Amino acid sequence: MLAIVDYGVGNLFSLKSSVAAIGVDAVITGDAETILNAERIILPGVGAFGDAVDKLRATGLDKAVIRAAENGTPLLGICVGMQMLFEKDYEYGEHDGLGLIPGEVRSIRELIAPEMKVPAIGWSSLSYKKDSRLFKDIAAGEFVYFVHSYSAVKCEQYISAVTNYGVEITAAVEKGNVYGTQFHPEKSGEIGLKILKNFCNI
Questions:
Q1: Calpha distance 155→85 (Å, rounded)
Q2: How many CB atoms are located within 10 Å of the residue 101 CB?
Q3: pTM of the predicted structure, to 2 decimals
Q4: pLDDT tens, 105-147?
Q5: Is 39 designated active site?
Q6: For 153-198, how does the pLDDT look when each residue is reduced to its tens digit (9 = 90+)?
Q7: Active site includes 95?
Q8: Among residues 33, 79, 87, 174, which one is catalytic?
Q9: Who contacts 195 (Cβ-Cβ below 8 Å, separation ≥6)?
Q10: Which residues, in sequence order, are bridge partners of residue 164?
């Protein structure tokens, strides 16, 4: 069973619909025991990091997600859900993440040319930094959908894919059984469904 973590933030129903489209049973849940007993977990997220991580901690589900990941359960963070996997975030102050992947999250404004727009919204292609089961049978150059103003940095050894926004921007990361995509697979058409299917086959 796949658990989609419900802590009040994220595209829960579009994500569940995408998972259903690949024939996978999923439950949207805010129950810690269900998360701990799941075969796989997706941690979604949209909006500001601080608000999202505060809501996750207020539910107590942060501990369940961390424990499940430490027990070896495959975990996929999406968008802000991916950003929360890191140690620190600097959106409107300094915030602690879940600490499952070393690194931090910074504004892409610090990385890109002044004429580039923030947030970065739209379809952008993937380039791979290393082999990843998340991208099995998906060619480099395929396009996926991004909506973000912040990016993971200082995490080079865990980057599996990047996209180009004048400079390389982290698109996907992984450390052991913990995976993250800055883009939204559930909004990325057939390629997004393939990525979700690959995750569900891990």
A1: 11
A2: 24
A3: 0.96
A4: 999 998 888 888 889 999 999 999 999 999 999 999 999 999 9
A5: no
A6: 999 999 999 999 989 999 999 999 999 999 999 999 999 999 999 9
A7: no
A8: 79
A9: 134, 135, 138, 144, 181, 185, 188
A10: 168
Enumerate the H helices of the chain as residue ranges.
12-21, 32-37, 49-59, 61-70, 80-83, 189-200
Strands across the sheet containing 178-181: 26-29, 2-5, 40-43, 75-78, 178-181, 168-175, 159-164, 127-128
What is the full DSSP assignment across 37-78?
H-SEEEE---S-HHHHHHHHHHHTHHHHHHHHHHTT--EEEE
Task: Report pLDDT digits (tens) over 79-106.
Answer: 999 999 999 999 888 999 999 999 999 9
Short-list 164, 150, 55, CA closest to 103: 150
Read off the tokens for 117: 């727009």
Annotation says 184 is catalytic:
yes
Position 43 scores a pLDDT of 97
Active-site position among 91, 104, 142, 186: 186
Count H helices, E strands: the chain?
A: 6, 14
* CB 102, CB 155: distance < 8 Å: yes
Distance CA 73, CA 94 (A): 29
Residue 47 one-letter amino acid = G
- Which of 95, 148, 184, 200 is flagged as catalytic? 184
